TrEMBL record, chain A:
It is a peripheral membrane protein. It comes from the Eukaryota. It holds the Pfam family COP-gamma_platf. It is found in: Cytoplasm; Golgi apparatus membrane; Cytoplasmic vesicle, COPI-coated vesicle membrane. Belongs to the COPG family. The coatomer is a cytosolic protein complex that binds to dilysine motifs and reversibly associates with Golgi non-clathrin-coated vesicles, which further mediate biosynthetic protein transport from the ER, via the Golgi up to the trans Golgi network. Coatomer complex is required for budding from Golgi membranes, and is essential for the retrograde Golgi-to-ER transport of dilysine-tagged proteins. Residues 543-691 form the Coatomer gamma subunit appendage Ig-like subdomain domain. This is Coatomer subunit gamma. It comes from Cryptolaemus montrouzieri.
From TrEMBL, chain B:
The keyword Transcription does not apply. The lineage of its organism: Eukaryota, Metazoa, Ecdysozoa, Arthropoda, Hexapoda. One of its GO terms (biological process) is protein transport. This is Coatomer subunit zeta. Oligomeric complex that consists of at least the alpha, beta, beta', gamma, delta, epsilon and zeta subunits.
Amino acid sequence: MTKLFQSKDVILRRLVYLGIKELSSIANDVIIVTSSLTKDMTGKEDLYRAAAIRALCSITDGAMLQAIERYMKQAIVDKNSAVSSAALVSSLHLTQLAPEVVKRWVNEAQEAVNSDNIMVQYHALGLLYHIRKSDRLAVTKLVAKLTRMSLKSPYAVCMLIRITAKLIEEEDSGSESPLFEFIESCLRHKSEMVVYEAAHAIVNLKRTTSRELAPAITVLQINCGSPKPTVRFAAVRTLNQVAISHPAAVTACNMDLENLITDPNRSIATLAITTLLKTGAESSVERLMKQIATFVSEISDEFKIVVVQAIRSLALKFPRKHSSLMNFLSAMLRDEGGLEYKASIADTIITIIEDNPEAKETGLAHLCEFIEDCEHTSLAVRILHLLGKEGPRTKQPSRYIRFIYNRVILENPTVRAAAVSAMAQFGATCPDLLENIQVLLARCQMDSDDEVRDRATYYSNILGQQDKSLYNNYILDTLQVSVPSLERCLKEYILGTTEEPFDMKTVPIASVPSLEDKETKQKSEGMLHSAGPIKPAPISREENYAEKLSAIPGIQSIGPLFKSSDMVELTESETEYYVRCIKHCYKHHMVLQFDCLNTLSDQLLENVKVHLDPSEGYAIMGEISCPKLPYNETGTCYVILKFPENDLPNTIGTFGAVLKFIVKDCDPTTGLPDTDEGYDDEYMLEDLEITLGDQIQKVNKVSWNTAWDEADQSYIEMEDTYSLSSMNTLDEAVKSIIQFLGLQPAERTDKVPEGKSTHTLLLAGVYRGGIDILVKAKLALADGVNMQLKVKSTQEEVADLIISAVG
Amino acid sequence: MDGALLEPTLYTVKGIAVLDNDGNRILAKYYDKTIFPTAKEQRTFEKNLYNKTHRANAEIIMLDGLTCVYRSNVDLFFYVMGSSHENELILTSVLNALYDSISLILRKNVEKRGVLESLDICMLALDEICDGGIIIDTDSSSVVSRVALRTDDIPLGEQTVAQVLQSAKEQLKWSLLK
């Protein structure tokens, strides 16, 4: 290798540098080439110098950097722009390795910012910002200085706009600030790049009002007509983003966007259409749909999915247009496309069905047709499951059975098995079809696949019993446990003595995914519930916590985890110590997990614990402190509480909480404490509430009404009436009841139909210890909201608790 | 698409690739270790990219969470990849710099054969345009001047008299030495 340095050939020399850079990550003995490179770097030949600097910096380490520091400083201010740029860029790479050393080059970088060469300016600005980015004051100064002196390089201006935008965001300053004025002035810059960057920044600032947006939108509108596809793409994409937050602002561009629909670049056309769909009025929907239909076959699957998502939001916005949207979707379903694309269409149809009862029949019919020739097993299974759930409740359940039975004849075993289950659902809910179903199931018992045979036999036996409660337990309501924990419990059971039968009750119940989860995942309910045996269920939060908690001594002895609450913030997130709490509920115990974050760089906290002041009846069983909490790290401490025994009303309470710890001052950069001695300190936290909802796990009851009727014998019923004067709408009342009780709404009663003055809310759940709860709340809109609450539960105390807690 | 503000950083380019008209790689460099860490992933991405772009000459595409700008000539496809929030115009300027420099190096004969013959210089040019994701230069003439094009590669008509003399002298020297 070193021999190659003797070479006079410029190209070869340069290739050697390139080789060194590529090998830098695996080489050990770099010392040999270092000297050669240093020679080249300080040599006369400019062609070598720049490349040598970059090669050298890629192989050097902290110790060797000291040796070449002097040369680097010189190189940064070198009058040859290539050398200077190379030095600046290399310094930026080096900041990951030795930030301290690079920080000392600030003055040189400062000088380089004033350079005439445009690239040097850009790189110098990048380096300066990187060095100072943790120091907001310095950044402000830098920006203030540079915005006045008008940089030559368009790249540097783009960079400056980004820095400025970030500053504005951090400072929350309004449109009057000089910073914002600077960005706005960039809209009139002569470089297209800068203009777009400025418009993009304005659009993405969180607090921009539509008035401030106007100039940016105008610029984007002009860009829409640009001959360059990239410029058009950039403009449309940004407009698309604006359309989400300020649809009204984009309406002005609708004409331009419509021209773009016929753009040769399909990506641009798709973005234009989805933007139009977001801003468009109800009347234009059908016209747009027609236009999409003409080119939908030509675009890639990713964009098709974008279109489908836009249609979904449109369907939610204009429920009356469902018929035309549905037709369009079903046409798309018939087209060629990958699994993901098909799945997103099916999802959309399912959401529309759920949201809009009018669309149910047509939607199901489309889906039925789709599974006739669906090549994706997983999708077919999901649709069959949905048919099983929804089909029996339509006016003519019998017509779906033909579709389902066709699957049994034609498909692979997985689909056949799902079809059998779906048929059984029909049998259980529609007594007049029972006979036919039995015949079909009997035929399925001759199937060649074990699973299909098993299911058919199982279902036909249960259906043969003619017992409503059996139907409910074994066909309509499937197991409500989380699959991973069931697996774990069974494993433990097998390892132990197997004399006693396995108790299903000990398996923690799967939590019903919360609404927010669903929204973020953009998945519909139907899909998540179809999980069951087909799709491996994602490990729930509870599972994660359960595993973590069971690793802690003292906690595993109190039984399996019942439920974990969401995070509750006990301090504001900007304070010195940021504390959040998760409440883990067990059968007789409550474990409070406190996640603490130390935001002070000059303090090291030790022995961190939370001191609780529990309300009456609670007993603290143990505290587990966090031994060490350095800056910017999250530590966890626990408090174990025992619920008051035989005194359920007292389980709801408010605790005072204080964070206690030992403070040690430390060096902010190294994190090592200055002294060994620390002092005790404490920090007041907000009060912690333990509510009823924390002790109840949501359970999804598919056929709530039958469960309610059945519950007459074994359950204790209580009722009471309340007037919720603070509520103004039924919707609001429903939401707060669900939130308060922590129960799962059944039969979609959480959605209040518009324009009604009464509503019945059906809820189901399990209290800790496995006590079932069913709640029926009748709401009527009067002055405020009046509510009649009926509670059924296997235990009197629990029912009583709920009744009293609501009051 | 979330409207995240762009983090002010110089690391703009995530990758640069030059493919032939079968979608095979001629030159490629990925600057972000977190995307496509292995050669296999890079190849699948390139194949995918090629399949999506070789028919429609549309200049820009979003793929796998990256914004890719591209342009093609005869049997070559040039790509520049950036994050999906990146300013597309900056990426285009990098693409143009790449294309123009290679076009200058190959004297406007931008073809697969030409690139393979001067692969060494093309690699140097790539290195001069972008280093570890930071744009170094987007001016094609300065890039070409930095990669030190061999003088004898320039056709006679475009050389100065002094250069012609120099090369003639050298050739004479070599023939004498033989």
